[in-house]
Amino acid sequence: MKTTKRFALFAVLLVSGFTSYAITNTAIAISGTNIVLSWPSFGYESYLVQYRQTLNPDDSWSCLTNAYHANSTNRTMLILYGAVTGSGGNGGSFSAMIAGGNTYDSVAAGPLAVPLDGSGGGVPVAIYPPGFDFSNFNIFDPLSGDTVSGAGYAYSPLAQQARLSQDVPLPSGDPQSLDGDSGNSSAPTTGFFRVFHIPSFRANFSGYTFDGPTFIPVDYAAPDADLDYVESTTVLIGGQPTDYAVFMPYVINGVTNWGMGIYFDRFPNGTNTIQLITTVRQSDSINDQTPEMVFSNAPAAITIGNLITVTNWDDLITSTSYAFKAQSSVPNVDWEIDIYDWNGYFVNYQTGHSSDGNISWTWNLYDYWGNSRGNFDSDPCFFPYITITGNLPSSVQTSGAELDVNNNSSSTDPLPLAGNQYPSVGGWVIAYMDRLYLDGTPHPDADAYMHNGLSSILGGPAEWGDPVVYYPLKFGLNYAQSDRESSWADFCSYLYNSNNRNLYYFGHGYPSFIGGDYNITDTNGMPNGAILLAGSKACLTIQDIHDKITFNQQSGKRPYRFIFLDCCNGATGGLPWAFGVPKQQEPLSYYQSASNTSHARPSAFVGWDAEVGGPGWGTIYNFWNCRSYWMGWWAGTFQANLDDALDLGNDFSGWISASQFDSHIRIYGYSAMMLDENNYGGNWSY
C-alpha cells in the first residue's frame, strides 16, 4: 500500500460550527461628526473596508481598513471619527454603504512590503506615505508571485485621504492617520463604502507550537471569497511566500473543511509570522476585463518547534546518489532512516548516532538486496521515515512506548519525499479546445487551420522520438457540463504523470488559470473570451499546478522542462511561478549555480501578456502558419533555439509585425533551449 504523509489536525484551535454567508444588511449612520458603519458578524471574521468618493469610472476604491477584526457576535461597527463636515454634522455629507458581495470592480489589494529581517508579515504599501524609503523591505506582488527589492521602489497610492483604522501597523505616528502625522489627514466627505469578508485562519495561535505537517482551516466566505472562485491562496512565513503549503480539504466530524496544509518541518524552530494572500475571481466571464480581488489577512505570530527539522532537504534526486539530511531538536540520539518505494515496499535503511542532533546519510540508490533503484521510470519517488531514540519530550514520544533504564523513548516521523528528477525521456502533452472555432458561430475554415497547425506541432517531438499525448479538450455548448469536466480530469491525469514534462496548450486562458466551458463571441461571431461556470472543473488553476505538479508534496515533485500556454494573458500572472520557471530569462549557467535552489534542470515558459486575436492580430490562417513554422525551425534540420525559432515562425508566416510579436510574447527561464535539450534523464546533473 502506497504511503503518504498525513497532516495533523489543528483541532485544539479550531472554532467549530461556523457558517459562511453574504454580507447583507449593511448600514451607515451619522452620529455628530462621526460616520458609523455596521454589518452582521459572528465575532471571528476579518474584513476589508474600502471607500471611494464617487462612482465615476475615473475614480477608484481605496483601502480604508484591512484585516479589520469583528468586534461583536451580532453586529460589527467601524467608527470614522470626524468624518462629517458641515453644520452640526448635518447636511454637508452624504455617504452610501455597498455590500462587498453585491458590487465589484477590478481592484486588487496591491503589492505588499515585507521586512527584510523577517520581523513582520506583508503590509500593503498603499498605507505608507508617498516617498517612503522601502530599502529595508522586499516588495511582494500577490498577483504574479514576484518578489523584488524595495531599494528605489516608488509607489503611487490611490487617491485616498480617508482616516484609517487598521489592525495592520502603520509606519509611524497616529494609527488613525494615513500620512503618519497626527491630525494632518483630511476625512472623507461625500462618498461610498463597501465591506468584504476576507479569508483568514480559523484559529488562535497563542500558546500553540507547530510541529511537522499541520492542517489549518481557513474562513473562505461566500460570496466575497467563495471556494468556487478562489484562484490561489499563498501562505507567507516570515513575510515570504512559501512553496511548502497546499490548498486542501480536511473532513472534521463528517464536514469537509478547506484550508492550508503547511509543512512546518521545512522551517527552522523559533518564533515567526504567518499570513494569507488569497486571489479571488469576481466573474464567470474570462477575458481582459475579468475582475479579481486580492485579500490579505493580518500577519499573526506563531511558534515552530519541530522535533525533526528538514530545512536543508533536497526534494529531487539529481545524481547517482542522494543525501538524507535532517536535524533533531534533541541531541545525543540514535536514529534510523527507512526507505519505501512507490508501491509501499521496503527498499533500504541505515542507522547511526548523532551527538549534536545533525543527521545525514548518503544513499547510493541501491536497495537492501543490492539491486539498483536508479531507474526513475519504475521508481518515480521514494518515501523515507525517520525514527529517533533518546531522552525525548513526552509530547512527541511514540504512543505506547516504554521508557528504558536511561529514560529513552522513540518517535517515528515521515520525511519529505525524494522525488524523481526526470524520467528516461520527457514526454509531451499537446492539448487544445476541440470546438473553440465551432462553438457559437461556426468557423470551419478556422477549425481546419487549427488542426493543420497542431499536426505540425505534434510532428516536432514525434520526429525526435519523444512520446506524445495528443489530447482534444471537450469545449462548447455541444457538450454536457459533466463531459467537459471529465475531459479536463483526463487531461490533468496526463499532466500529473511523472513521465510527461513538456506541455503545449491552445485555448482560453487568464493570468491565474487556463480553461473554460463555452465561448463569448464578438460582433463578428469570433471567440474573444470564455465562460467558466461557478464551480466548473473545466480548468487548471495556479493552485492545481503548484500543489499537484511542480511542488507536489504527496507523490513527489515533477517540474516541467517546457511549457507553452498559447492563450490570452497566460504570462501576466503567476502561471510561470506555478510551473517553477523563473519569471525572467536565465542563461544555462544559472541552472548549475546556487541560485537554482530547486536543483531542477533548465526549463522554459512561453506565453502572452495580452489578449491574442481579433482586430490587429492578423489572420487565423497566418496565426496557425506561425505555429507550424515555429516548430519546423525548432525541430527541423536547422534546429534553431527556442527564442530564434519563435521569431522565425512569425517572420516566415507573416502573421503580425515583428515589433508587435516581440512586445507581447514572453519567454521566461532558459530562452536558448533546443527542442530536445536535457530532455533525457541521464543528461543533466546538479
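That was protein one. Protein two is written in the same sequence-then-structure order:
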Amino acid sequence: MAAVEGFDPAKSGQQPMDSTGNRIPAGVWGDTTTGMGVFGSSGQLLPGGTDIVSDPAGVEGHGLGVPGVLGRSDVDPGVVGESLQSLGVLGRSEQASGILGVTFSDADGGGRGVFGSSTTGGDGVVGFVGGATGVIGNSIRGDGVLGISGSANGVVGENFSEPGDPMDPRPAGVVGRSQLGDGVSGSSMEGSGVFGLNDGARAGVWGSNCSNDPGIGVKGTSLAGTGVSAVSLIGSGLIAESVTGNGVEGSSSRGVGVLGSSLGDGFAGLFLGRVRITGTLSKGGGGFEIDHPLEPDSKYLTHSFVESPDMLNVYSGTVTTDDNGRATISLPDYFEALNEDLRYQLTVLGQFAQAIVEREVRDNQFVIATDSPRVTVSWQVTGIRHDPWAVANRIRVETEKTADEVGRYLHPDVADRPDSARLHPDPADREPPAHGGQAELARVRALLPQEQDERVEQMLQTIRGGGAIDRDALRALIAECLRHANISPRPPRTTRRDLERDWERVEATVRAIGHERGSA
C-alpha cells in the first residue's frame, strides 16, 4: 500500500483551508463529506481480509499487530478527543480492555495511568457495567484507588440494595480487603479517622474477625486521646462480641484501659455474668444487690461489703462438744498455706458455759474445750492472707496524692467541692461542648445541629426528672438529626431506579455501537 505524505506550508508554500477560507495548520489534512477524512493502515492483511470499513470518522487508523493510531507529544497530550454532545474518547475491544492508561513516571505524583477531571460539576471518571465491577484500581506497590477532595468526600461507596434483595443479602457500600495490612484504614487530622453512621437498626460500624487464630474485630489506638469512641442516642454505643476471644479489650500504658461513665442514674459498667479481676479493686463502696426475698416484684435488697484495712479471710461455723467437752474443727487443707496472724471468736449457744480454744490451728485443725459436755459453740476464725500475690501487693491504707492529684477529689460532690475538681472527669467534660450547651450533653449533641439543642434538652430533662418520654417522638427527632448531622457532605442517595435508568442509556449507546460495527 502506498505511503501518505503531508506537507509543510513553510516549505511548500501551500496552505490547506476550510470551506470559509480559514487556514488550517496541519501536517496531513483530509476532508470529506461522505466517509473518512483521513484513513491509514499498517500491516499485512490476512487472506480474504479487509481493512476498509464503513464507519464514518474524521481520522481512522487500522493496524495488524501494531497500534491503529499512535499519538505522542513531549509536553502536550499525546491524543486529544473532544465532543460537544457525545463521548470525548471511545475505546472498545472485543476481548481486552477498552482503554488502557499507562505511565512510566516513577516520581510521586509525576503521572497517572488514567486521569479524569471535570470543570463544570460532572464526574471525573465513571465506570459503569451491568454485572461486573464498575471501577477496578490495581497497583503493585502504590494505592489501588486514591480519592482526594478539597471540600467533599475523598471516596464515596454506596449500595442501594433493600432487605430481601436477591443480589446479596448484606452487601456493603465499601469493602476493604487485605492479605497482611488493614482492610480499611482511615486517618484524620481533626475529624474522625473512620466514621460510621446508620439510620436504621444495624450497626454504624461493624468489625468482625473470622480467623482461627485470636484476632480483633475492631481495634482503636490513640497516643493521647480515646482509642475508640462510640455514641448512640437510644441503643448501645458499642457492641463487641467474640465466640472464643475477648469481646472488648482496652489497654493503656499510663491512662485508663477501659473507661465507662454514666450521665445520670445509669450504670457506668454492667456485666451480665462472671467478672474476674487479676489486680486490685479500688472502690468507694459496694455490696450485693438482689431481688428482695419478700417482695421480688417491686423491691431490691442491698447489703454493704465488710471492709477492713487487712486482707482478711473469714471462716465460721457451729460445733457441739462431746461427752468430754472437746470438739475438733477441721479447716480447708490450704488454710495454713493461705493465712497467718489468726484470730478466734467463740460464742456459747443455749446455756451458760465457758468455752476456750484449747489448741490453736495445727495441721489445719484447732480444738475447742467447754467446761460442760454437749455444749453448742458458734466459732469464727479470721486470717490475713500471706499467699505470694498478697505479700507482693499489700494494701497501703494511707497514701499521699501525687502532685497532679492534689486538690482533686474522687467524690467532690459529697466533699462540698466543685465538679471541676473531680479527679476522673467525665469524658464529655474534656472538650468544650459541641454547641455551648451543658457539658453532660456534649456526647448527645456532638452529632446534632445547634437548632436541635432545645428539643434534646427538654427530652433529657424529662428523663432526669423520672418522667416517661415519648419514644416515637425521640426516634423521630433522632432521624431528623441524623439527616442533618454535622458530618462531611454526602452525595444524594442513589436508588435502584436511578441506576437502572442510567444503565438503559448506556445499553442504548452500546447497542448503537454494535449496530454500526455489524453493518460495516
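The beta strands are 38-42, 59-63, 287-291, 300-304, 312-320, 326-330, 339-349, 355-362, 365-370, 376-385. Keep this in mind for the problem set.
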